[in-house]
Amino acid sequence: MPTRDVLTKADLAELRRSALGTADPLGVAADVAEAAEQGRLADPDDAGDALTLAAEIAEIRARPEAALRYAEQALAAYPSGDDPRAGFARALRARALFRAGGRDDEAMAELTALRPLLLGQPDAPAYVSAALDAGGRSATAETWLSEAVDTLLGERANAADKPAQAITAVDPVAELGPPDAPGVLFLLLQQRHRVRRNLNLPHDRQDDLADRLEAQLVRRAGERRDAGTDLLFWPRAELDRLLAEHPALTEVYGPDWDAHRGRLEKELVRLREAGQAGLGVFRASVDGLHAVAGRRDGDPTDAAVRAGYAAEVQARPSARIPWPPERNDACWCGSGLKYKKDCLPRSR
Ligand SMILES: [Zn+2]
């Protein structure tokens, strides 16, 4: 990273986007933390966010001591531990405590304190459940997410003066909120669905609701696009990196690789049923997206930047993977499984 005297908000956004792809992410984390400690931020109010970024990099790179130190400095830098921006730093602190070994009780105390945020803060379902997963507490995540969903559905039923059983009558359209800002209930259901799938739990009523909301989101995304859809396909390692660096894109590409492939398969089936021929997906990469963002001086999470990247990829014949394969042929996603055993059933 080039040494800068003062880091602006734009510098921090750029580092958030590029740090993990650099040769020395931990060096970037140390530089950002140093800038915050030495008061070299254009806006002093960014100190907590800068140190949180350093903690996130260290945590992803499996350096729990550094992650813990940065997360604690971040918490000290926010005006108070109740600052809404501090939640992610506290979850990172918990992850680092789990990883450090022998400090599970402290990690759980931190996460228990964050639990009420599940009911109102859009990012909380993702960062709280990721921290519990990291500590081998996915079953606890499932319980917490389920209870938060029950609470929100109960409040909704009360407000509508309906019996609590009316939960499945929740209107998916009303619930999703504006297309680019899905409601907390949807985000909770999505994480709950992910955690339950990883725990091999059976599909229940709330999973059905999650599926209905998801289908609604996919349909809306289809309506927002004119002629073509972006149909970007992120191979597993690329998706993991994309979501680690840009958690907001969970809403666009799905919370994990299974959900991502399921969305694409459903969208392709929808397009075929609408009469489109010559369908395919386009292999995407995080570096490619970042390159477009860099050229446009925009953020990778921005819809216009992603649309620009998609247009570039779609123009590249080598990126195209035709769809559908024959039932007994290798699946389009590259898993190595037969199509009929892998992505074909995901459209159902
Ligand atoms: Zn597949």
What does this structure look like?
With 348 residues, this protein is mostly helical. It has a domain at 227-348. The protein is 59% helix and 3% strand. It contains 16 helices and 3 strands. The protein has helices at 9-18, 25-37, 47-60, 64-77, 86-100, 104-114, 124-134, 138-159, 172-176, 184-198, 205-224, 236-245, 250-253, 257-273, 286-296, 303-314, and strands at 232-233, 280-283, 320-322. The longest helix has 22 residues, at 138-159. The structure holds zinc ion. The site of zinc ion (ZN) has 6 residues, from loops.
User: In order across it, which strands form the biggest sheet?
Assistant: 1-2-3
Proportion in helices: 55-70%
Number of helices: 16
Note the run of SSEs as H and E.
HHHHHHHHHHHEHHHEHHE
First-to-last CA distance: 47 Å
- Overall SS class: mainly alpha
The assembly state of the depicted protein chains is single chain
Sheet with most strands:
3 strands, mixed
Q: Quote the beta fraction.
A: under 5%
pLDDT < 50 stretches: none
| Shape call | globular
Summarize model confidence as the mean pLDDT: 87
In total, the number of strands is 3
Ligand list: zinc ion
Radius of gyration: 21 Å
